[in-house]
Amino acid sequence: MQAASHKVAGYCRRNFWNSCGIGGRKMNREIFAQLAELSAQAKPAEFVTLVSAPDSQAGYIGQMLLLTAGKHLGQLVDEEFTRLVIDKIASLVWKKPITLDLEYEGASYRFFWDRLSKRRSALILGAGHISQPLTSLLAMLEYSVTVVDDRPDFANTRRFPQAETVICKEFGQALAELNLSSFGAIIVVTRGHRSDMECLRAVIDQPALYVGMIGSQGRVRIVINTLMAEGIDKDALARLHAPIGLDIGAETPTEIALSIAAEVVAVSSGANFLPLSYKWRCK
Predict the structure, then answer these.
(1) Regarding the domain delimited by 120-269, which CATH topology (the fold level of the hierarchy) does it fall under?
(2) Is 149 helix (H, G, I), strand (E, B) or coil?
(3) CA dist list (Å): 187 to 100, 130, 220
(4) How far apart are alpha carbons 223 and 149 in whole angstroms?
(5) Over the chain, what is the mean pLDDT?
(6) pLDDT in tens, 36-85
(7) What pTM does this model have?
C-alpha cells in the first residue's frame, strides 16, 4: 500500500482484530489480500477504514471497504452507511490520504480514505554494478525502486540517484523492517549465495508478481536445494526466476540489467516472451 498513511493504516490493522467480529476479520483479511495483489500489479484502488464511532457502535471500528473498477468489497456499519461513504468519496477530488467525518442516524463517525499508488515498486537486494543500470532502467519504467546493501561504499544515494530509497543495513535487518508485500518485483543480486539464501528465505512467500535471483545454474541449484532441504515450499521456489533475466546474450552489467528489466516487464504484463516478429509470422 504505497500511498497509505502508515500511522493511521497501521492503527487500523492493529485495531480491527479486536474490534471486528469473526465475519469482519475474515472480510478484512480478504481486503488486505486483494490490496496486496492490486498493489503488486500497480492497479488503482481506493480503501476506507472506519476509525471512530460512537461507543454503542465501537464494534464496527476497523471495518474496511475496498473500491476498485466500479465495485466494492466489504461493508462499513451497514449497507446504507456504506453507500453514504461511497457517495461522499465520489463527490470529492482526491489529493492525499485523509480522515473524513460523517453523520449517520444522529451519531458521528470518522473514516480514513486512501488510494493505492499506480506506480509500481521494485526491491533490489544488492547494490553492485548490475544494480546501478537496473535501477535506472526500472526508474525509467516508472518503478519506485528501493535498494538494499550492507556496504556503505555501495549503498548510497550518490551511486543510486534514481532510487526512491537506499538502505544501508544488514539484509536480514532491512528485510525485517520493510513492508515486503508492497513490492511488485523483488530482485536478488547480492554478492554471494549466503546472502542470496538469507534474502530468499524472507521474500519467497511474498505476493510479488516477480521474484528473481542472479547466479549461474550451479549457484542457483545449490541455493534451491539448500532451501528445499530446510523445508521451504517447493511450489514457492518454483516461482523463482533464476538464473535471472531473458536470454539476450547479455555480458556487460548494463546488458544484464536490461535482460532483468525486460523479464520483470514481461512477467508483470503476462507476456509470452516471444519476439514480435515470431508472433507475426505465426499468424
Answers:
(1) Rossmann fold (3.40.50)
(2) strand
(3) 38, 11, 14
(4) 19
(5) 85
(6) 776 666 567 888 999 999 999 898 898 988 888 778 888 899 999 999 99
(7) 0.63
- What is the grid cell recorded at 253? 552489467
Q: Are 9 and 114 in contact (CB under 8 A)?
A: yes
Burial readout 160-196 (b: 16 or more C-beta within 10 A, e: otherwise) = beebbebbbeebeebbeebebbbbbbbbbbbeebebb
Which one, of 252, 155, 3, lies nearest residue 146 by Cα? 155
Question: pLDDT tens for residues 258-273?
Answer: 999 999 999 987 888 8
Cell numbers linked to 262: 525486460
Structure letter (DSSP) for residue 155: S
H helical segments located in the chain:
6-19, 22-40, 79-90, 131-140, 171-177, 193-203, 217-229, 234-238, 253-269, 276-281
DSSP for 183-238?
-SEEEE--SSHHHHHHHHHHHTTS--SEEEE---HHHHHHHHHHHHHTT--HHHHH
Instruction: Please name the residue that has the C-alpha cell 451497514.
Output: 78
C-alpha 86/C-alpha 72 separation (Å) is 9
* Domain boundaries of the chain, sorted by first residue: 6-115, 120-269
In the block, residue with C-alpha cell 493504516: 9
Q: How many CB atoms lie within 10 A of CB 120?
A: 24
